[in-house]
Design brief:
- The chain is globular, with a radius of gyration of 22 Å.
- The N terminus is likely disordered.
- With 482 residues, the protein is α/β, with parallel strands linked by helices.
- The longest helix is centred in the last third of the chain and has 17 residues.
- A hairpin with a 2-residue loop joins strand 2 and strand 3.
- The strands form 3 sheets. Strands 1, 4, 5, 8, 9, 12, 13, 15, 17, 19, 21 and 23 form a 12-stranded mixed sheet that branches. A 10-stranded mixed sheet has the order 3-2-6-10-14-16-18-20-22-24, covered by helices on one side. Strands 7-11 form a two-stranded antiparallel ribbon.
- Helix 3 packs parallel to helix 5, helix 7 packs across helix 8 and helix 8 runs antiparallel to helix 9.
């Protein structure tokens, strides 16, 4: 019987700058899920996961260009990972409050239809550069990337004309070790890699708007669930700045699909990324997203998130500070106004001195069958002295059986830090409602006003006035459905 060898896990001091280190080179081999099923691995494999992985591999065309080598590297690593990864259950701690069985019990199949070449155009009164991503495919005919500064690239890796850019992206892919099953599923099934590249010292004045469309879908009750795997890679070199908006479009309200996107962000020394993420997909859809951020010294990452769609919506957010004097700001608002689950699992790792982080999480559950989940982990390691980290989660439960599960978590190894966290769960305060009623405002209107103002602290941080207005209108529709 063949012996099994397990890798040793050795804890060392923080690694040097990944922007200056040379990537390791090794022979690139294509790993097929089917061909890699050796007897020693069978005992660790999940047949359901392997069947899904094989279907995803079969749905993708063979690469015809060496420019896709970074994407092939992602696929190879993800294929290997899936061999020993099982589908999560409620017995697994990260999914204790998140039930993914409705995805597993569906007939999952990869999106195969060629994406349409004409889509709803962004409103003319916005100044957003926009890239259309349809079921994981980049549609250039519905995108507008004109007017970008010299050296900036936004588009598919398959269309990149610069060999140095492709090589640069290849240096960073597959450098993330914290992903779960859904991260690997995306890695196997991503049809292309959208790239946002900002060279050193360049500031992109206009927002870069990534608009995600889920076109292929099934009818309610059909038990079919098409899955798409959009993947975006952002590289901001030293001193670069960019504002990125991810908007996941709602689509037909009675259509079912599974969107499984991944966004990776690498920020060089002194770089700045402002990231907005708006999710308003179909209430019958599954939306499981991964965001991975790696920050160099003196860099700044800001996230503003508003999530209201999906039957199951989960955001896995991982931020790692890889240099001193690094700033991370996270603001999220989750809305569960239907029979749905809104889940945020965040992990922030601080490894260097004088790091700063602020996290504000708010959620509103306004349905007796709705629930919200927040698992926020901030880890301050030994070398992260003089860290200033704060975390606050506040939740509104507006129905008697509405549920929220919160787990704020601080792990502090350094001994010279200033860290705090807090959690509050409540309904609307009677004194606030009385204030409105005493001025002739009825109870229903008063409750709407207070709920809206609760989320305004996060919504007001969205960088574009038109996008902010759009999100506010979506919240109003949830508060007052027709």
């Amino acid at each position: 019987m063949a012996a099994l060898a397990f890798p040793r896990h050795i804890h060392t001091a923080p690694k040097p700058s990944f922007f200056n280190s040379k990537p390791k080179t090794k022979p690139r081999t294509r790993v097929s899920v089917q061909s890699s099923l050796t007897p020693p691995q069978l005992g660790f494999s999940d047949p359901f996961v392997l069947e899904l992985a094989e279907a995803l591999e079969d749905s993708l065309p063979s690469p015809a260009s060496p420019k896709l080598s970074p994407l092939e590297k992602i696929r190879d690593v993800s294929s290997e990972t899936l061999l020993s990864t099982s589908w999560p259950s409620r017995k697994d701690e990260p999914f204790r409050f998140t039930d993914t069985s409705f995805i597993k019990n569906s007939k999952i199949y990869p999106v195969s239809r060629t994406p349409p070449q004409s889509l709803e155009a962004p409103p003319e009164d916005t100044q957003l550069l926009h890239l259309a991503i349809v079921d994981g495919h980049i549609v250039d005919s519905s995108s507008n990337m004109s007017g970008l500064p010299d050296g900036v690239y936004v588009g598919g890796l398959s269309n990149a004309t610069s060999e140095s850019l492709v090589k640069r992206v290849g240096e960073f892919v597959s450098g993330f070790d914290w992903g779960d099953l859904f991260w690997s599923i995306n890695g196997v099934g991503a049809p292309d890699l959208a790239v946002v590249y900002v060279p050193a010292g360049c500031r992109v004045e206009n927002l870069v708007h990534l608009r995600y469309y889920s076109v292929e879908a099934s009818d309610v009750g059909s038990n079919k669930l098409p899955v798409s795997n959009p993947r975006v890679f952002v590289v901001v070199e030293e001193g670069g700045e960019v504002d990125i908006v991810e908007e996941f479009m709602g689509g037909d309200q009675n259509r079912c699909y599974w969107a499984n996107p991944v966004l990776e962000v690498v920020i060089g020394e002194g770089g700045k990324v402002r990231h907005s993420y708006v999710q308003n997909q179909s209430p019958c859809a599954a939306h499981i997203k991964w965001t991975s951020v790696r920050q160099e010294a003196e860099s700044n990452y800001q996230l503003v998130e508003v999530s209201s769609g999906g039957k199951l919506s989960r955001h896995n957010l991982h931020v790692q500070q890889l240099g001193p004097d690094t700033v991370t700001e996270l603001s999220t608002l989750h809305l569960a106004f239907n029979e749905q689950t809104q889940d945020l699992h965040s992990r922030l790792v601080l490894d260097y001195p004088r790091g700063s982080s602020r996290q504000l999480h708010k959620c509103i559950v306004a349905n007796s069958q709705g629930q919200a989940v927040f698992d926020g982990n901030v880890k301050v390691n030994r070398y992260a002295q003089q860290t200033d980290a704060g975390q606050l989660t506040r939740s509104l439960l507006l129905e008697p059986r509405a549920t929220v599960n919160v787990k704020p978590n601080l792990q502090i190894i350094a001994d010279d830090v200033k860290c705090s966290h807090g959690a509050a769960i409540s309904d609307l305060e009677e004194s606030q409602l009385f204030y409105f009623q005493a001025r002739g405002i009825d109870l229903k209107t008063a409750r709407k006003a207070l709920v809206f103002s609760f989320g305004a602290e996060v919504v007001s941080q969205l960088p574009d006035a038109f996008l902010q207005k759009k999100v506010e209108n979506q919240i109003r529709e949830l508060l007052d459905p027709q």
